[in-house]
Amino acid sequence: MNFRQFVIRNTLRNKHLYMAYFLSTLFSVMVFFTFTVFAFHPALSNGLNQKAQIGMLAAAIIIYGFAFFFVLYSMDVFIQSRKKEFGLLMIQGMSPKQLKKMVFIENLVIGFFATIIGSVAGVGFSQLILWLSNKLMHVNFGFYFPIQAILLTIVSFAVLFLAISFFIQFRLPKLSLQELLKAGDLGKGTIKSSYVKTILALLLIGVGYAIALLAKGTLVAMVMFPVIFLVVVGTRFLFNQLSVSVIERLKKKETIFWKKTNMVVFSDLAFRMKDNARSFFLVSIISTVAFAAIGTLYGFQNMILEGMKQNPYEFEISGTVEETAAIKQDFTQLLAEKGIHVEEGELTTYTDAEQVRFIKESEYNHLAGLVKQPTIQTQGKAVQLVSTNAIDGTKEAMHDVKIPDGTSLPVIKKEKTTVVSAYEKTLVVPDATNLQNMESTTMTVWQPKNTSYEQLVSIGKFQEKNIPFTAKSYTQQSITDMYAPILFVGIFIGIVFFVSAGSFLYFRLYSDMDVDVEKFKMIYKMGLAKKELKKMIYQQVGILFFTPIIVSVIHGAVALTAMYHMFDQGMQLAGWQVLGVFVLIQVVYYLIARVFYFKKVYRLVQS
User: Fold this and answer.
1) In this structure, what are the phi and psi dihedrals at residue 348, rounded to the nearest 5 degrees?
2) CA 387 → CA 307, 310, 390, 417, 489, distances in Å?
3) Between residues 211 and 98, which one has the greater pLDDT?
4) pLDDT tens column, 553-575
5) Is 119 helix (H, G, I), strand (E, B) or coil?
6) What is the pTM of this model?
7) Kind and range of the H or E run holding 429
8) Which residue, 55, 21, 23, is CA-closest to 39?
9) b/e code 17-32 from CB counts within 10 Å (16+ = b)
């Protein structure tokens, strides 16, 4: 058996030691492959404009760069956790040069299998994403065999693993043989936190939050980068200084420290926080980016579409009788050919010299009945209309209105409505009101019965060659199709960042398992019950999983609120939905991870 065979067999036979690193690298390959499937998808690449294609290319570079640093960091942690193993190999006669060669070959072996298996898994994962995009975004992506994606992924990650295999050799622990053999057995001593950096953590994050929440309109864009800098630096201090300070203070409170199994949990928690500070920092920042990217894109799309949904009519045409007669006739004929049954309504708007609009009561109530909205009773007077999405107070209340024939009508109240657009001064008046000698426009609407969304979109294409005519579903679908590639790329990158953050936590959990097993073995021999052991492990895993996520959720909520302030909007429901979904995913991730981790630790503790 030569040296190369020894390394390969050692890697394969001790696969449980390499599993966390292998899965992390496999995931990186899978998400990159999935993205390239979409980047080269005919439905996207053939229909994208040049700017969108540049955006897709930039996104691919970002994901590839992120994958490089993620794999490099994972490998670095993996190497640092194997100090004792390296010491044992050197006792057996392995030279530093051979040690570097071993790490080089190991990384290539893991990279090879991760690339192949990740690409195969990516085929299935990409089809799932294609299906979801079709169901949720109404974007019809068909299946195709991704030859370009496979070739690009294999070449890209072959280069990546070669580069990492070269660079990681310089990260091998430069310790004496004695220090390598005793790695993990030496005490960690005492830990101290900086009082100044602890205060700075609170100050920097607090100031960053205040600026972000108080800024409005265009000022949001101006303060964005200073706020990001303050919060990022503050978050770094939060994990490696403030968290340690809080834990040390809690340990001094006897009512907390001496309660049940808290002593064991808190005993090395400060060291864990210090050791995992970099991981927690990366996870929180990456997750915040994911929250902000997806929340912003999803929220803005909802704002645009919700604005369109304010119009209650599926099909509508407005203009003078002469302008709309031919179009109305053609559309009525189209409905008859398609066998679509509709309810039709018509309303005439009269405008005086002062740009006050008048609508007759019966016509308004007929349209209100079509869209199931409250009718209006004028009682012989006038009612002022205000659009439902207009801010209260922005409309000047009217008291009396003059009619061109010399009479006047008192305005009895203001009424919010979605039946007609009422951003200008608009009044509903009795049918008997003389509205002659005014400019008039007629609005005709059609409300289909028992018609599917696909049929509405198909019929709505009529508006392409008939400009005064508008079709709500077709317009919404056109906007969705226009922004779908950009929205999809943003959401996909956000998901990649968030799931990668979860992989960071997973990797850190298993890289510290040997230390946990040794600690719990000693306590278990002293009579620790299985129930108590389970509780401690669940608490430990919970702290690892939720500490950075809680921080990132708060960061994300502030970031989304600031982004919506740019458009003079409060925190949107869409933003909370995005945060809620990610928290739910993390909870599920935690519930699964803690069970598997406990079973593995408990089996090793009993052995």
Assistant:
1) -105, 130
2) 12, 9, 5, 5, 35
3) 211
4) 898 888 888 887 776 666 667 77
5) helix
6) 0.66
7) strand 426-429
8) 55
9) bbebbbbbbbbbbbbb
